[in-house]
Amino acid sequence: LGLALYAGSLCAASEATFLYHDYCVIGAGPAGLQAAYFLQRAGRDYIVFERSHAPGSFFALYPRHRKLISINKQYTGKSNSEFNLRHDWNSLLSHDRRLLFRRYSRDFFPDADTMVRYLEDFASLLKLRVQYNTAIIHVTLEKNEQAWNGHYFLLTDQDRKNYKCSLLLVAAGTWVPNVVNFPGSEYVEGYETVSINPEDFTGQTVLILGRGNSAFETAENILGVTNFIHMVSRSRVRLSWATHYVGDLRAINNGLLDTYQLKSLDGLLEGDLEDLAIIKDKKGKLHITLRFYLENRNISAGIDSITLPQDELDNFATRAPYDRVIRCLGWKFDFSIYNRSLRMMPGKGNIKKYPQIKPSYESRGTRGLFVLGTASHSVDFRKSAGGFIHGFRYTTRAVHRLLENRHHGVPWPSTVYPITQLTNSIIKRVNEASGLYQMFSVLADIILLRENATAFEYLEEYPIGVLAELETQTGRKARSGLFVVIMEYGRNFSGADKDVFYYNRAVGEAQHAWQSNFLHPVIYYYKRLPTEREMRLRHPDWPLPRPDAIHHIVEDFLTDWTAPNAHILPLRRFVENCLGTDLRNFFAESCFLFAFTRQKLPPCCQQGYMRMQGLVGSQELRHHAAQAGLLQDYTHTDFSDDRPPDSHAGSQEQLMRDHGMPVRPLQHLVNAKDE
Fold it and tell me: Which residues form a coiled coil (predicted)?
């Protein structure tokens, strides 16, 4: 009995050492703070763990040369705050207008220190619950049937304090440097530690390993003081204006391309870095050779005993020795803190630096573990902006909405409108929605049709990768068909080898809208919700399975899709064809006539005129409609009774005479309609 009591007390003490929260968030970078904001607004029990003394510790160090490449556009010519977020790549989403990044910097490409200050204010002004100086060093699972997902997450920090949570949000980013090991790699300096003082490179010859923005940023800093710079990478340079991917080389950093192509000594080379080897001579110079030359040879024996490529090929490109070699290969996710029980596995191929996650941003190995921010970029790598603030601020909100429905019974936010507002709703969203615009081909607006297409339910910015699971993920029903509204580039317009400035690259006519190259709205119509099998078997270049009908709104130079003939009219006719109805708006006189000449009234008349709703007619309004050719002008008509010619009843009787219909007293007509 004593042993049993002692064991029970130990268990109780052990249980008490775990501090419990419903939600644990690892990392107080932009994604972690964004998740904390939504959790706090929803009144959830959460905690954010940050290893540093302040939020945004990554930006306190990187980029090394302190210039961000995220756009901070001050002026757009519009006052619509949602539209302006399309061109604000730094602000997080919140209700506080003080927390717009343009209030912190007026620079088009801001300084990284400004981002650190912004994130500090975001956390403090919104009173987010962040626990600083807490580095989570181990995460494991504890099976429990009463837990939300059948298990709890157990976290341990550097002080051996323990935490327990029902759901884990990983927003730690990618911060472990990518390192390639090859013979002589110990002579390579890393981007994270190399000097940023140009004077330290005066008169030197430099080789840079890598071809991303960090590599070109480093080259740009020392371009004017070096003898020459060579850059080696396994793939060709990819320019962001050609690929339309903001993670590729940006114009602000591409000065070395000028000096390369304008024959000023600098140059770019392609080759597998794992095939390289570096040998240091007695003078401290670094020589580049190939790994296979070193097979069965001792590097320590000296350079004179080793065959170099130029010994066999005297014009070998990198035959000149280098003073320094700098590694700029980016970062990868830290998998080391996660126990095997979580099955946090790296992706495959070019996304191996990210953890494997589903299109819902949930781990493929563990239910209840979601990856947010840069580390979630495997969902849309090299396709959209999910690895950057202006993209993952929206995907983080989408994850929050999924969790609100799953664990708290709060359905995905939606708005119900009469079917007459369908065209207007689509036009409004494609012209101002920032989430659709930034996360093109990833997030979409979903329009769920009600029975008989008399109304529709509008859901904003849903991840299309889990479209087949829409009903379970959102708590909304799609029984009568749906429209999916997304933004897309032209199929063959983006790519490292594409000429995006070719003549006649733009499409201007609505009949050729499907050939649009630039970002433009695309509307998919499905008579039923696509199945998981259809989503899985879709073409790899298609964001969605084959629809029952599809409509492209023609690209627009101003990204302003409000032209009546080029944009709105084709969209309305497409929707009408899908629904088999007439979505035009009519004056009361026309609805009155349709009531006697058609078996089915247009929705505008059903939901307006027949319910005694709509604008009250006036002489000025009727005159304007007559001038526009929308109504016949009865101003000078000689009516048979004493009613004024612009009265509503007089106009109705004249319409009936014009169409050969017998005229009866107005009261009799009203009674007939009621019957």
Answer: none
